[in-house]
């Protein structure tokens, strides 16, 4: 009985823990009452302060860690509705002068200060460890951004974008140590990939944030050189730079729907496409988020600048959009990238970065440095570098020498092997290449095939065959007759592919491949013993072979003949014929008897 009573008591306690306490219900009802008073009477604007206090609830940035999470949650959404109504009624506009004695302007300035406080608090929720809080906070912030931009547009008579608020949102996101995958997907899929104004200002603001953070880090590095002990501020800045690099790349690699033409810029978050399309302006919006008011001279200067730029289009324009993207990527590439980021960036360079840049040659230094780095980085830099050479007139005279040096034994085992040979097939496709150059590549691939795994050999053989078909002059390497005392002039240590030593050599390695232990390799290599009257191979059919695919192919192969089996069961394990007069015994059975207990 006592145990039953205990279980029943625990059940009641658990149920009580899952429900909102009565005092919280009263507080939530009070929140709704305060909200109603604010929205119905201007004399009750002081209720905003009470709602902000309830929204904060504690000093924690996570609502779940606050003293009364349900009350704080209700207050946050109530304030969202309150400030949305104030924005729609144009009650949060900037006063004409900072020293204005007008009572209405003073009230508006006070309400704006409360709005900034609330906006900062919701931004702090983006740093929560709970995605369930981050995503709703982002939704609130983006909705306020939209309403504020519309309020600025209504007040100015032309489309404006509240970029100071958007920059504050981005700064919180990019420097966030808890940038969850849910938050990334919400930001990219729901906003940046759908609305071109948000995409444009993301590129523009992210460039500024990266530049500022990097300058702070470099300043601290200089101070650290003068002082041995690193302060907490320096460590924080370096950590901040690391998190920012990861967060920026998490967004950039998922961005799609980049406009290719002016007509592609047709979806906007902050305003509607109208007859004055192309005359959108960036606005400094309200006060900066540090709560400090601008100086009167700065306000007048900004007003004069806005007045003088009425005819100047700040957004949207295809060229400015591409420039913003270009600057953003160039700033990102200056950051300390991890090896994984470096590789992924090079993999998307030729398709998702270069085509959208107005001056792709600005990537020349980055790509050439990557190409000279060696190893996997050089392989991945090939695509972008070759795009600059063929499509943007980049002069790189040592391209084929660098490519030749990439052929080593390690190449046959990297995961990017198929990608590399696909590019090599393109690089050597021109029939105007010198025969000595092509012969050097053929000879080097043939030599590497002797120590390569079967999956790599089945790529090399079709590649060599296609090159020989494309360059008949190199057929001498196969048809060369044996001569006594002939010395092979080709030196595998020589890294100059333009020498004719390979052309004077022979492809004896291909004959060795015809005796390979793997039947698929041996069969494929026999193509060089036949007349070259077959069409060139489609290299795509061989690039994705691995040990797994080759094993699956063998076990699925149907046998033409039934394999020969013994028709009588042998009486012993090893069929050694007995001597005359010797009795046949099971040797293994005798050995096991020694272990009998």
UniProtKB/TrEMBL annotation:
What domain of life does the native source organism fall in? Eukaryota
Keyword Membrane on entry: yes
Q: Where does the CCAAT-binding factor domain start and stop, copy by copy? A: 378-525
**A GO CC term assigned to this protein in UniProt:** small-subunit processome
The record's section on InterPro entries has: CCAAT-binding_factor, Noc4
Task: Write out the transmembrane intervals.
Answer: 448-468
> Region (Disordered) spans which residues?
276-313
**Pfam hit, one:** CBF
Q: Does the keyword Amino-acid biosynthesis apply?
A: no
| Keyword line | Membrane, Transmembrane, Transmembrane helix
Start-end of Acidic residues biased regions:
289-299
List the GO biological process terms.
ribosome biogenesis
| Family in the record | Belongs to the CBF/MAK21 family.
Listed name of the protein: CCAAT-binding factor domain-containing protein
Per the UniProt record, the source organism is Bifiguratus adelaidae
* Lineage summary: Eukaryota, Fungi, Fungi incertae sedis, Mucoromycota, Mucoromycotina
């Amino acid at each position: 009985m006592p145990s039953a009573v205990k279980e029943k008591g625990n059940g009641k306690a658990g149920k009580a823990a899952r429900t909102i306490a009565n005092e919280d219900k009263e507080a939530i009802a009070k929140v709704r009452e305060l909200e109603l008073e604010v929205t119905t009477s201007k004399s009750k604007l002081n209720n905003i302060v009470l709602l902000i206090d309830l929204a904060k609830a504690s000093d924690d940035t996570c609502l779940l860690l606050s003293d009364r999470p349900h009350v704080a949650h209700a207050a946050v959404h109530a304030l969202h509705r309150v400030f949305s109504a104030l924005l729609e009624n144009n009650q949060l506009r900037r006063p004409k002068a900072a020293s204005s004695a007008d009572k209405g302007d003073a009230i508006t300035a006070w309400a704006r200060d409360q709005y900034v406080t609330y906006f900062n608090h919701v931004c702090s929720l983006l740093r929560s460890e709970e995605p369930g809080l981050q995503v709703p906070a982002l939704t609130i912030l983006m909705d306020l951004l939209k309403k504020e931009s519309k309020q600025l547009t209504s007040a100015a008579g032309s489309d404006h974008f509240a970029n100071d608020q958007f920059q504050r949102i981005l700064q919180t996101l990019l420097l966030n140590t808890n940038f969850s995958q849910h938050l990334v997907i919400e930001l990219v899929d729901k906003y940046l990939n759908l609305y071109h104004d948000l995409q444009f200002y993301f590129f523009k603001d992210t460039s500024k944030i990266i530049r500022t953070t990097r300058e702070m880090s470099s300043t601290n590095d200089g101070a650290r050189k003068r002082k041995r002990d690193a302060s907490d501020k320096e460590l924080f800045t370096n950590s901040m730079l690391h998190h920012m690099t990861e967060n920026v790349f998490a967004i950039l690699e998922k961005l799609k729907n980049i406009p290719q033409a002016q007509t592609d810029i047709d979806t906007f978050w902050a305003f509607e496409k109208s007859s004055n399309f192309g005359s959108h302006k960036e606005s400094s919006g309200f006060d900066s988020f540090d709560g400090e008011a601008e100086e009167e001279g700065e306000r007048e200067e900004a007003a004069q600048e806005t007045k003088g730029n009425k005819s100047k289009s700040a957004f949207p324009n295809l060229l400015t959009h591409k420039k913003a993207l270009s600057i953003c990527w160039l700033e990102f590439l200056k950051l300390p990238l991890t090896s994984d980021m470096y590789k992924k960036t090079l993999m998307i360079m030729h398709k998702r970065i270069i085509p959208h840049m107005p001056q792709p040659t600005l990537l020349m230094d980055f790509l050439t440095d990557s190409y000279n780095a060696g190893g996997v980085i050089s392989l991945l830099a090939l695509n972008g570098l070759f795009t600059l050479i063929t499509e943007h007139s980049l002069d790189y005279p040592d391209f084929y020498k660098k490519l030749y040096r990439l052929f080593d034994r390690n190449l046959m085992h990297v995961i990017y092997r198929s990608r590399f040979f696909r590019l090599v097939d393109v690089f050597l496709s021109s029939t105007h290449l010198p025969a000595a150059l092509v012969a050097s590549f053929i000879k080097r691939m043939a030599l590497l095939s002797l120590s390569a795994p079967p999956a790599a050999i089945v790529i090399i053989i079709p590649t060599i065959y296609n090159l020989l078909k494309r360059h008949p002059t190199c057929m001498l390497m196969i048809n060369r007759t044996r001569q006594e005392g002939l010395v092979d002039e080709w030196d595998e240590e020589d890294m100059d592919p333009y020498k004719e030593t390979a052309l004077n050599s022979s492809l004896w390695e291909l004959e060795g491949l015809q005796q390979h232990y793997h039947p698929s390799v041996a069969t494929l290599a026999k193509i060089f013993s036949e007349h070259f009257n077959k069409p060139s191979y489609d290299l795509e059919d061989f690039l994705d072979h691995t040990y797994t695919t080759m094993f699956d192919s063998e076990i699925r192969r149907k046998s033409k003949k039934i394999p020969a089996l013994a028709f009588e069961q042998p009486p012993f394990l090893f069929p050694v014929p007995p001597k005359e007069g010797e009795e046949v015994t099971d040797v293994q059975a005798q050995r096991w008897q020694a272990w009998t207990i």
